[in-house]
Amino acid sequence: MPIDRVQSIAALSILLGLIVLGLKFLAWWLTGSVALYSDALESVVNVVTAAVALLAVRGSAKPADAGHPWGHGKVEYFSAVAVGVLIVVAALLILGEAWAAFRAPRPFEADPLGLLANALAAVLNGIWCTILIRQGRRLRSPALIADGRHLLTDILSSAGVLAGVLLAAATGWTLLDPALAALVALVILWSGWQLIRDSVGGLMDVAVPDPLLARIREVIAANAEGAIEAHDLRTRHAGPMTFVEFHLVVPGGMSVSEAHDICDRLERKIRETVEPAHIAIHVEPEDKAKHAGIVVL
C-alpha cells in the first residue's frame, strides 16, 4: 500500500536524522566552529520535522468519517506549515549565535576528524534527500516532499560551511566563521518561507498544476461520447488525494442509465490519469449548456 510505504520512509527519516545529528555535533565538538554549530542546530530541526512528517502521514492515512467526510489529507499541509515555522526558528537561533560570535570571535580548530564527520553527514543527507523528493512526488505526499526540500537546503549550507571553515582555517580570518553561520541562516530562512507559502497554497485549495489540468480536460473531451459538453471544471489537492468536479451536459432525452454509463466511463479514465482521486460529476440537461468549457470530441 502507498500509505504504508510513505510511513516507512517517514520513519526512516527520523533514524537517519538522528545519525546525521550525532555526526554534526561531533564535528562541532571537535572543531569549536560556530558555523558547524549552526549546521548542527539545523539538524535538530531535521529530526523534529521528520517526526512531524511521520505524524502527519499517519494522520492523513485515516479514512473519511462522519466528522471528516472528505478525509484527512490536509493534515500533511498543516505539518508542512509547522515544518516551515520550525525552519524559521532554527534560522533565528543560528543568527543569534552568529551575532554573538561576531561580537566576541571564538577560536576554532580545523580538526580533520570533525570535518570528515560533517562531510559524511552531508553525503548521507544528499542520498536521503533524493529518495524523499522522488518518493514524495511519486506517492504524492506533501510531508515527504517538505522533509526532502528542507534536507536539500541543509546539504547546500553544509557544503558552504565546510568549504568556509577550511578557508577560515587556512587564512586565519576568524570572522569568516560567524559570517558563514549567518549566511546559512539566511538560506534556511528562504527555504522556510518557500515551504510555508507552498503549504498555505494547498490549504487554500489551489488547483492542480496546469499540465495535469490540461491532461484531465483532454481525458474528459475524449471519453464523454454521448454527452454535449463539460463545464465548470474544478480541481484541488488534499495530500495524496486529487478532487475533480465538473458539470456534464447530456441530451434532454437521454435516460438516467445512459448518463450514468458515461459518468462511470469518465471516472474510470480520469483515475487512469490521476490516482487516488475523488470525482464528482453533476449531470445537466442540454438547456443548461454554456457553450463553453470542454467540447466533447
Automatic annotation (TrEMBL):
All residue ranges annotated as the Cation efflux protein transmembrane domain in the record: 12-204
Signal peptide (from-to): none
Topology of this chain in the membrane: Multi-pass membrane protein
Residues spanning the membrane: 9-30, 36-57, 77-101, 113-133, 154-173, 179-196
Family classification: Belongs to the cation diffusion facilitator (CDF) transporter (TC 2.A.4) family.
PANTHER family from the UniProt entry: MITOCHONDRIAL METAL TRANSPORTER 1-RELATED
Protein name: Protein p34
Organism: Rubellimicrobium thermophilum DSM 16684
